[in-house]
Amino acid sequence: MTDSGARLERDGAIATLWFDRPAVKNAFTIDMMDLVADLIREADRDPDVHAIIVTGAGGAFCSGIELGALASVENHPVEHKAMLTDHIHQVLYALDTCATPVIAAINGPAVGAGLDMALACDIRLAACSARMSEGYVRVGLVPGDGGCFFLPAIVGLGHALDMLMTGRFVGAEEAERMGLVSRVLEDDELLDAAREMAERLALFPQPQLGIIKRAARQSARLDLRTHLDLMSSHLGVVMSSQPVQDLLASAKSPS
After folding, report:
1. Does residue 92 sit in the same domain as residue 191?
2. Residue 184: other Cβ atoms inside 10 A
3. Residue 1: inside a domain
């Protein structure tokens, strides 16, 4: 375990960001969230990194914020808001603007803001033992880390309100049925499957993947005409790239 609670490992074109406080199921502190946001941006800026995996050490993904971190914040509305906007929310902003594909490998409990960080990733894979909960209401809180934004968009309003308003745990198979995760793997196969997917994504042109990711995220906030106009501009730029021009040139060549 690292003192900072998070670490970034690079292996070829793949970077793996580890939540690394296994003794507390990777519950996070405010300083840890600052580091996580920095590590995501660092990996995204690295031209040699073509895909990012986010996972947790020691059989847990992330159990949310450590209550001691909440208790350390001065009991004033402005201070509580600043804790979120200036620190914890920076992870969501880093994931939202990250052009590199991000895969969440949910290898155990993902609770509260821990689940919300997985929701902010592009693709979610889960181990059979994974359990997910928007548990805020069970401790008298409300989702402060994007749960009410991401979850309805991913699973629909009905499933989202079921999880948000009851705080109940959802197992991996139920999560797959509702579309919260794409695939469920045996525990010992999860990281290999995440890496296999990351390697496949790393083979594709990175600017194009970034455009696809950005357009899909923006689509929920745009009308169809604006979305199609935006995509026609993106396609015009992509069509002028050398790989596409080479492909078109080969299509023109006589067989």
Report:
1. yes
2. 20
3. no
Q: Are residues 173 and 211 in the same domain?
A: no
What's the domain range around 168? 6-202
- Say what the pTM is: 0.90
Q: What is the pLDDT of residues 195-253, one digit of tens each?
A: 999 999 999 999 999 999 999 988 888 888 888 888 888 877 887 778 778 777 887 76
